[in-house]
C-alpha cells in the first residue's frame, strides 16, 4: 500500500513539521510495517521542468521507432531556444505538455542525464515516463500532462507531477485489511499522534429506493451479502482524469486508464471499497449475481479467457458472465472510449470465496487483495455516492435518483470480555475506563456490566469471585478481525503502546540435560556422519503413487496414509509412512545434478493413521479446551514413530592410484544398520541379522535387523523393479530402522582392562552358502566361552574345490584371560569348543581338515 502524505492530510491533522522519521515510528508503534518513507523532492536532482512539444520528426532506418523532438522549455535551458531531444515513446503529439529533465539532472537510481549524440541527432535531456521518475511502474509511454495543467514551459515540474510530496509504502498484514485505504491509515495515525480524524465514511448518503438503479438479482447472499448500484447518464466520454487524481493514483502505483475507471480506483484507495464501472449500454438485460456453473467462461479485462468453477461468483446479463465478481471485470461490459452511460457497482463479497478464486485463477488484483482481507460492508453506498459526484464533476452527466441497495449483511456479534483481562494477560495495569476508551477509539461500541454468573468468560471457566466487571463490545463494521477477547486485548495493548509492556525474562527452571531419547538421536546422527553419510531433511509429503513405485504389496500397513486437509501441492497430499520415499527422491535429485557417489541419511517421523480415528472436535480460542476435548483431539492425531533411514549409490571407496574402488552393496546398508544400533547403545549380543523378504528390498539381498527377537528395521539392496520405477542406479541400497522400537540402552559396566597378552587364532569354516555369517559367528561366541574377547569375520571365499553351494568363512578369534597368560592348550581348547558348536549347529568343517 503506497499513499501520499498530502492525501492523508485531508482526513487527519498531521503536524505541518512532522519529520518522516516520526511518521514512520508512529506507524511502527501501531504494528504496521513500514517499507519506506520517501520524500519525492530528493529523488530527482537538477532541472526537472514542464516542456511543450513543438515539433516531432519521425526517424527511419532503425530497428525501433525513434522520434526527434523540439520542446519548448522556456528559459530553463538558459537560452530560451527549443530543446532538441530524441525519444522513443509514441503516446504524445505536438502541443502536448510533458516532463523534461535537462542535462546535469539525476533521476532515481543515480541515472545521470547529459547531452549526447544518438541516432544521428543531438539529444539534450530526456522526456520522462512515470517509471523513470520513480512515480510508478508504467514505462509504456512518457507522462503527458492534463490539458488543465496551469504550469507554463520552463516551470518546475515537481509540483505538477507530485514530486513535492512524501510517499509512505506500507506492508499490510492479512488481518488489517482496513489499512489498505487512506481512511484506515488516517484513522491509525490519528490514534498514534492524538490528532483529529475526519472520517470520509460518515458523510450522509441517500439510501436505497423502491425503484432500482438497474434490475439486479442476487441468488447467493452468502457469497454476496450486499450489492449497491447507481447510474450516471450522458457523461462526456472525452473527459480526462484531473491531474491531481492522476498524481495520487501514480503515487499509489496504479496506472491511469480513463476517468470512470480511475474514479473507481481512486475511491478504492480512499475508502477501501473496491468498485466496478459498467458501460450500461453494453449490458443486455437484468444483472444476476450467482455462483458459476461448471465449464462457464468469462473473458476478463486482461484479455484472458477463464474457465470457471462452482465456487466462483460471477455477474451475468442475458449473454452470460460479464464479470468475475470481486476479482476483475469482463471485456464485454467494460467502459470504453465512447461510453456515455456508466453504472457504478459496489458490493460486499465473501472473503474466503474471493481468496480462493484469486488463487485458482492466479489473478491477484488490487480489489481481490482487499476483499480477502476484509472490507467494510457499510462503505458500499458511501463509495457509490463519492464516485458519482466525482464523475459528474469532471465529465458532466446526470445522476439517477434511483439507488439499488440489496442488503443481507448480518449485524456484528458482541464479544464479552472481563474488564481486567488486558491487565492479567499483559501485566500492565489498565483501568476499566482506559480499556473502554481505547476500544472506543478503535470504533467499538462498549457496554459496561457485571458478570452475574460468577464466571470469567475470558479465563476458560475460572471463577471470577462473583461480581466481576465485564464489557460487552460490538466491533465496528470495518474490523472483521475482532472476533474474540484476545483480539480486543491486542487492540488495547497496541493503542496504549507496545513500549509500555515491560520486557521481563521468566526465571528459567534448572535444566536436567538431554533426555536419553535425545542423546540417542544425537549419537545415531553423529555415528552415521562419521562414516561419510550426509544428513538431509526431506518434506514429509508424498504422492498417492509412491506405494506402487516402492512395490508395497496390497494390505501393507504402509499403504494406509494420512491425507493433509490443505496440502501444499495436490500432487503430494499424503503424509509419509516410510522415510525411504522422500529420501530416495533427494538421492535422485543429487544424481541428476552430477553427483555419482552419494550416501544420505535422515532421522525423522513417519505417520500412521490411528484405527477408527474420526473428526477432531472443533475448539475455539475463547477458553482452554477441556480434558475431554484434548483427549478426543489426541485420539485423532496419527501415530508418529521416529525412524532413521540411509541410502547409498555409487562407490563407497573411490578408485585412484592407490587401487581399485569399491561400489556400495547390500552389506554396507546392513553395516549402517549395525552402526545405528551400536550408537543407540544396544549390546551386540542383543542384535540379530537374518535374511528376509520385505518390500522395497531385493528378496535375495534383504536382511531384517532384530533386537531381543523383535524386528526393528530392514536393510539391503533395493528391488530392481523399484530402482527402475524411481530411475535410480542399479544396486542402490537402503536401510530403515524404527528408533522408537529400540529398548532403552542397558547400564553397561565399566570394561575391565587386562594387562595379559591375547592369543590370536584364525579359523576358516566351510558351510552351506545359505547359512548367514552372523549365525555362524553367534555359534562361535556361544561355544568359545568366557575366554573369547572378540571375533571378527575377515574373509568370505568360494571355489570349485569347496564344492557347489559351499563357502568358506574366515574368522579372527581373540582369546584373553583377565588374571593370567593363557597357555596354548587353553586357547586351542577354547577354539575347538567354538568350532564344535558351529559344527553342531550348521555342519561346519574346518577348511583343509
Textual characterization of the structure:
The protein has 849 residues and is α+β, with helices and mostly antiparallel strands. The protein has 6 domains: 2-41 and 167-198, Phenylalanyl-tRNA Synthetase, Chain B, domain 1, CATH 3.30.56.10; 44-162, Nucleic acid-binding proteins (OB fold (Dihydrolipoamide Acetyltransferase, E2P), Beta Barrel); 216-407, 3-Layer(bba) Sandwich (Phenylalanyl-tRNA Synthetase, Chain B, domain 3); 417-500, Phenylalanyl-tRNA Synthetase, Chain B, domain 1 (2-Layer Sandwich); 516-612 and 636-741, Bira Bifunctional Protein, Domain 2 (BirA Bifunctional Protein, domain 2); 759-846, Alpha-Beta Plaits, CATH 3.30.70. Helices cover 24% and strands 26% of the residues. The chain is built from 20 helices and 42 strands. The chain has a 7-stranded mixed beta sheet, with helices on both faces. A hairpin with a 2-residue loop joins strand 36 (697-707) and strand 37. Helix 11 (432-442) packs across helix 12 and helix 13 packs antiparallel against helix 17. The termini are far apart. Mean pLDDT is 91; it is low at 454-466.
Amino acid at each position: 500500500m503506497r499513499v501520499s502524505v498530502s492525501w492523508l492530510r485531508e482526513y487527519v491533522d498531521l503536524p505541518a513539521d512532522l519529520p518522516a522519521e516520526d511518521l514512520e515510528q508512529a506507524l511502527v508503534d501501531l504494528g504496521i510495517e513500514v517499507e519506506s518513507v520517501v520524500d519525492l523532492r530528493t529523488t530527482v536532482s537538477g532541472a526537472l521542468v514542464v516542456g511543450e512539444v513543438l515539433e516531432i520528426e519521425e526517424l527511419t532506418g532503425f530497428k525501433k521507432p525513434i522520434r526527434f523532438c523540439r520542446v519548448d522549455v522556456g528559459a530553463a535551458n538558459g537560452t530560451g531556444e527549443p530543446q532538441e531531444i530524441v525519444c522513443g515513446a509514441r503516446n504524445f503529439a505536438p502541443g502536448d505538455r510533458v516532463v523534461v529533465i535537462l542535462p546535469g539532472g539525476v533521476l532515481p537510481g543515480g541515472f545521470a542525464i547529459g547531452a549526447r549524440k544518438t541516432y544521428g541527432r543531438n539529444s539534450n535531456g530526456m522526456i520522462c515516463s512515470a517509471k523513470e521518475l520513480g512515480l510508478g511502474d508504467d514505462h509504456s509511454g512518457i507522462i503527458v500532462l492534463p490539458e488543465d495543467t496551469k504550469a507554463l514551459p520552463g516551470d518546475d515540474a515537481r509540483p505538477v507531477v507530485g514530486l513535492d510530496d512524501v510517499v509512505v509504502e506500507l506492508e499490510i498484514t492479512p488481518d488489517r485489511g482496513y489499512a489498505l485505504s487512506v481512511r484506515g491509515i488516517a484513522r491509525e495515525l490519528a490514534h498514534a499522534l492524538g490528532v483529529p480524524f475526519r472520517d470520509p465514511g460518515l458523510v450522509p448518503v441517500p439510501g436505497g429506493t423502491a425503484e432500482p438503479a438497474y434490475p439486479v438479482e442476487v441468488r447467493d447472499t452468502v457469497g454476496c451479502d450486499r450489492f449497491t448500484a447507481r447510474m450516471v447518464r450522458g457523461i462526456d466520454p472525452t473527459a480526462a482524469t484531473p491531474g491531481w487524481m492522476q498524481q495520487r493514483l501514480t503515487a499509489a502505483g496504479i496506472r491511469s486508464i480513463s476517468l470512470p475507471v480511475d474514479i473507481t480506483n481512486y475511491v478504492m484507495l480512499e475508502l477501501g471499497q473496491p468498485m466496478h464501472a459498467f458501460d450500461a449500454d453494453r449490458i443486455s438485460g437484468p444483472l444476476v449475481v450467482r455462483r458459476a456453473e461448471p465449464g462457464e467462461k468469462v473473458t476478463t479485462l486482461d484479455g484472458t479467457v477463464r474457465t470457471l468453477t462452482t465456487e466462483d461468483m460471477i455477474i451475468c446479463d442475458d449473454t452470460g458472465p460479464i464479470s468475475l465478481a470481486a476479482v476483475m471485470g469482463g471485456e464485454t461490459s467494460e467502459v470504453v472510449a465512447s461510453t456515455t452511460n456508466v453504472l457504478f457497482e459496489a458490493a460486499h463479497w465473501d472473503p474466503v470465496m474471493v481468496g480462493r478464486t484469486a488463487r485458482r485463477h492466479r489473478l491477484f488484483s488490487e480489489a481481490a487483495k482487499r476483499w480477502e482481507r476484509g472490507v467494510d460492508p457499510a462503505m458500499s453506498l458511501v463509495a457509490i455516492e463519492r464516485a458519482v459526484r466525482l464523475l459528474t464533476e469532471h465529465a458532466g452527466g446526470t445522476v439517477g435518483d434511483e439507488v439499488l441497495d440489496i442488503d443481507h449483511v448480518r449485524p456484528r456479534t458482541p464479544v464479552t470480555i472481563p474488564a481486567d483481562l488486558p491487565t492479567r494477560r499483559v501485566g500492565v495495569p489498565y483501568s476499566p475506563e482506559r480499556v473502554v476508551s481505547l476500544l472506543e477509539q478503535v470504533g467499538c461500541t462498549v457496554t459496561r456490566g457485571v458478570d452475574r454468573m460468577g464466571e470469567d468468560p475470558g479465563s476458560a471457566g475460572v471463577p471470577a469471585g462473583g461480581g466481576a466487571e465485564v464489557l460487552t463490545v460490538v466491533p465496528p463494521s470495518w474490523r472483521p478481525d475482532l472476533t474474540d477477547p484476545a483480539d480486543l486485548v491486542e487492540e488495547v495493548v497496541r493503542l496504549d503502546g507496545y513500549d509500555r509492556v515491560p520486557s521481563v525474562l521468566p526465571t528459567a527452571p534448572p535444566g536436567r540435560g538431554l533426555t536419553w531419547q535425545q542423546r540417542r538421536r544425537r549419537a545415531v546422527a553423529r555415528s552415521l556422519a562419521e562414516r561419510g553419510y550426509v544428513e538431509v531433511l526431506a518434506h514429509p509429503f508424498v504422492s498417492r503413487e509412491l506405494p506402487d513405485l516402492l512395490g508395497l504389496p496390497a494390505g501393507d500397513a504402509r499403504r494406509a496414509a494420512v491425507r493433509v486437509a490443505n496440502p501444499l501441492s495436490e500432487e503430494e497430499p499424503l503424509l509419509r509412512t516410510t522415510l525411504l520415499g522422500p529420501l530416495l527422491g533427494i538421492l535422485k535429485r543429487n544424481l541428476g545434478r552430477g553427483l555419482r557417489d552419494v550416501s544420505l541419511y535422515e532421522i525423522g517421523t513417519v505417520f500412521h493413521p490411528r484405527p477408527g480415528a474420526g473428526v477432531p472436535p472443533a475448539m475455539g480460542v475463547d477458553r482452554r479446551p477441556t480434558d475431554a476435548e484434548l483427549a478426543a483431539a489426541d485420539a485423532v492425531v496419527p501415530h508418529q514413530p521416529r525412524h532413521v533411514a540411509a541410502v547409498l549409490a555409487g562407490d563407497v571407496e573411490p578408485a585412484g592410484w592407490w587401487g581399485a574402488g569399491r561400489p556400495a552393496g547390500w552389506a554396507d546398508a546392513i553395516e549402517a544398520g549395525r552402526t545405528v544400533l551400536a550408537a543407540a547403545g544396544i549390546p551386540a549380543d542383543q542384535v540379530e541379522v537374518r535374511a528376509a523378504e520385505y518390500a522395497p528390498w531385493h528378496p535375495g539381498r534383504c536382511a531384517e535387523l532384530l533386537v531381543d527377537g523383535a524386528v526393528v528395521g530392514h536393510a539391503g539392496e533395493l528391488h530392481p523393479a523399484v530402482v527402475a520405477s524411481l530411475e535410480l542406479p542399479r544396486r542402490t541400497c537402503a536401510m530403515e530402522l524404527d528408533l522408537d522400537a529400540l529398548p532403552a540402552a542397558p547400564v553397561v559396566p565399566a570394561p575391565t582392562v587386562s594387562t595379559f597378552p591375547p592369543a590370536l587364532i584364525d579359523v576358516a569354516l566351510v558351510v552351506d552358502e545359505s547359512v548367514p555369517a552372523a549365525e555362524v559367528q553367534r555359534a562361535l561366541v556361544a561355544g568359545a566361552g568366557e575366554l573369547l574377547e572378540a571375533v571378527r569375520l575377515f574373509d568370505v571365499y568360494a571355489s570349485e574345490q569347496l564344492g557347489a553351494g559351499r563357502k568358506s568363512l574366515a574368522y579372527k578369534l581373540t582369546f584373553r584371560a583377565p588374571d593370567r597368560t593363557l597357555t596354548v592348550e587353553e586357547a586351542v581348547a577354547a577354539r575347538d569348543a567354538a568350532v564344535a558348536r558351529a559344527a553342531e549347529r550348521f555342519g561346519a568343517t574346518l577348511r583343509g581338515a
